Every structure is written in C-alpha cells, then in structure tokens.
Input
Amino acid sequence: MILCAIDDLIFSIKLSTAARHLGAELFFERTATGIVPAAREKHPSLIIFDLNSRTLAPLDAIAALKADPELRTIRTLGFVSHVDSETIAAARSAGVDQVMARSAFAERLGDILRPDA
Output
C-alpha cells in the first residue's frame, strides 16, 4: 500500500489511473494533521509527498515520520519543481529518502507504483 500526501487533483487522478492499471493500492491523505496517523494506521511501504504543497506541510510530516522509531523505516519519496532548489535541500534535511523533479516523477510513475518494486 502506498500513502499519497498529495492535494493536487490532477496529479491525484494521474496516480490513481496508473495505480489501477498496475494493481497498486493507494490511499490519499489530504490534511497535514492526518499524514502521520495515516502512516501509523495503514503501514504503507511508501509515502509519496508533493513537496510543493502549500496545505500539507510535507517537510514537517517527513521530519515527524523520520523522528518516530516506528515509522522512520517507511520509504519516502517527494516530487518537486526542478527549479525549487531550496525545497529540495529542505526535504533532504528533513530526511526524505528520495527527491525527484516533478517531470521525472511523472515519467517514472509506472516503476514507482509497481507493487513488486
């Protein structure tokens, strides 16, 4: 199961469509305060963050996940505008496992969502 901390409806639809074709199970959390509790409840293998989200506070959520002994091993991936070097550095500092440019994320979506990946 993959937890998606994404509030962008266009990207949500793109992810849902790809997941359906691949047989991947997604759960979307669209509130900043719900990400860590959802991770605790769902035990995802991966959490995908839209690092440019203004409402989900992704950097705070990543830091909270990585500070929690029970959750820190969950793999995290954030996508971001390739020109936003400040957010990329902040995400790495917060402990995100992988950062991808939004375009690369969209290109590799099938590989990222594949259940056996």
Residues 10 and 75 are 24 Å apart (CA to CA). The chain has a mean pLDDT of 93. The longest strand covers residues 75-80.
